[in-house]
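3.2 Worked example (two chains)
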Amino acid sequence: MTPYLSWLSSGDNAWQMTAATLVGLMSIPALAVLYGGIVQRKWAVNTMMMVFAAFALTLIVWVLWAFKMGFGSPWISTFVGKPATVVGAGGEQAQASIPLLKGLMPNFRFPEGSLVYFQFVFAAITPILFIGSVIGRIKFKVWLIFVPLWITFAYAVNAFMLWGGGFWAAKGALDFSGGYVIHLAAGVSGFVAAAVIGPRLKRDREKAVPNNLLFIAVGAGLLWMGWNGFNGGDPYFAGADATAAVINTNLATAVAMMTWIVMDMGFGKDRKPTFLGGLNGMICGLVGITPAAGYVNGAGAIVIGLVTSAAVWVLFAYLPRKVWPFNKVDDALGVVYTHGFAGLLGGLLVGLLADPKMIVYLGLGKNPDVTTAGLFYGHPRQLLIQAGAALTVIVWDALVTFLILKGIGLFMKLRIPDAELAAGDVAVHGEVAYPDEEPDEGDFGEVPGEPQPQEHHHHHHLVGVDSSD
């Protein structure tokens, strides 16, 4: 008896499942506690619920139809794959394959189930990232309908075109691990969703104080370390390119975080280093290196960290104050900056910095090694290809997000009513993140399901909303 099929490499499979688990941790719990700690205390439960629900919903639609739309056989020209399930024995245990990439990369040495799960955690984190744009006003029920539709019509198309061997992949567009498919997509979609749903209550925009910096630190640390799986898992083999991707990811992130902190100290409003500022820089580095991680060398990674962070710092300081539509849309956590712009910049920078000495896959016999090259290494067209792919993702995801929300809006209101917006979690979920240690007698004597009276006095900071809202 043998535990391994002839094509299976235990090392590759072990790394693929480990990398996928690391990426899963970036969503639950990392983004749940990161975003849950950044929002006002009254929205912590709602944020966590949205993260966990999006994770669960995405897996269900992923195995039932969406995985094959992103990584299956072509269906609608070179734009999307044919929907099919992967819940049978073959979908879990047969040798993994992406039909259009056959012969363009080595055959996979792990089962289809490892590929399905690895790609699922990428799909799931994308809508989870842009929860940050719409927090504090979107109805939970709307979110539950929106996520499966967005995965189907936006994410699966992005994935097929860039990773499944579709239109932009065939043109040679580079997106190592999701600078476009995930981060640019999340930044654009979140921004459009925030515009369609409208802003948070005025009072909430003015009093947007994080409720727990320590939770933010836990989430941020898991996000950074989880990114080792995010970029390190994307060569699909536990080889030298995976190593390079992990080192480049951490290097770009370290440089980007310190760039933001130094800029805050030198040019920021209060000239003080802040943890939230460092966090923004960290995310800019993680996102900026994502499209490039296994294609650039260490010097390229340093440049990407520096440029992405500095550029987003300037945009962050300038656009929301002066420039339409950024001065009009309430993107609560600035997802369009740290993910949208950082993903776009990273994707363009790989068009400059991709180093042909970085070997993605070794050639065999007469076949050359698989490498990439950017403008600085004699391939100027790469920048144009990168720009074209970015434009496609921006236009398509903006359109799909707009249409899905407008469609849902025909049947139900997209926004939580103002009275519930004032109260937050207790009105929407009947739970609070930080209940008082010593409840008053009688506070918990209500009949379940009865309409609750106005908030008790110990939640007084949640009510008495200014009537001008």
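3.2.1 Second chain
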Amino acid sequence: MPAPPIDRIVAEVDRAADEIVDFASRLVRIPTVNPPGQEYETCANVIADQLRAHGANVYLLPAIGRFEHTSEHPRINVVGRIDGAGPAVHLTGHFDVVPTGQGWTRDPFGGEVVNGLLYGRGSCDMKAGLAAAVFAAEAIRRAGVAHTAPIEISGTVDEESGGFAGVAWLAENRWLSRERTKAVIIPEPFGVDRVCIGHRGVYWFEVVAEGRIAHGSMPYLGVSAIEGMSHLLDLVRDELGPALAGRITAMPVVPEGSRHATININGIEGGQPVDEVPSPCVADQCRAVFDRRFLLEEGLDRTRAEIAALVAKAQSRMPGVKFSIEDRMIVEPTCAPEDAPVIGALTGAIARIVGRPATLVASPGTYDQKHVARIAGVPQCVAYGPGELAMAHQPDEYCSVEDIVMATKVLALAVLTLTE
């Protein structure tokens, strides 16, 4: 008698282990650095060729209408579809990577495998996960196991800069939608035994303080914008920071410190450039950019009102300075429903393949789930993929080969459950 479908799929993943790692390595060797968005078209075509070899219908989709999509750095997404009836189960991974930075002891784009580890920028975040997604669907095909719902795999751009020309564009153009998409799994590197159900919110904003210029020998005739900004920074440190530290979410955000609301001062600029020849002037402008991570329980309205009140308090301390707030980026918190079938499918597959119960976690930062939930309107979305979250964006970034293969098995079984 033939082996049960699950056993056949697991066996096909084991047989394809070298192919999976080789494909991930080939993706790592393409320097898809963002910014500015290098080699996107090359990488999209490599993914497309692999999907075609697996019998998928493939679509190369330039992000028409997005300002990031240029002739020099085209934004090309790729979608492969294995047909079935009804809404699809969609696996989506980004192929852009952050700049390499300093401190590497290996070639960041060598894609070499040493002692069971695949090294290179993007190996963990998240080209290994993308390779696992591609071969999870292929293992089902090779095992000859029928599925009812369509299976889709997409490789997308620009997640590291917000995903607006990637998953957001796919959702806006209805490649991802409530009507055509049953569930979405994003193979971000949360580990082989953890399912990420959502993330905190982001309120990224800029505050501008405007004073009045004057001669530096007579500063009392001017109003220093830098001094005005210092009042706001004091309030952030002494009042807002401690208040946020006392707030904690019920979401299982990891690491533990990120279960609290936080604020970070991204950058500050004011007065004359310090490296230029000095001129005796009172600073008439100062700008600061802030990254406020807010909790599901706080909500955006409360978060924005709290910042506005803090800026007003700084204004009252130095009436001669005019303050204004400009929103840079807003991302609402998101969380998959507790009873979502996609969670059950993954946790069941993890128990079978990994051999221990799955842990549900939430992300300290955001990823493409925000676009799937908000624009596509698909609540059935979680992240699951190989790799250690702490290795993302690090020098000598790596992903364990064993984890890549194990995650491929988990994804394949979860997809099978969702497509039956």
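3.3 Remarks
The first strand starts at residue 57 and ends at 62.
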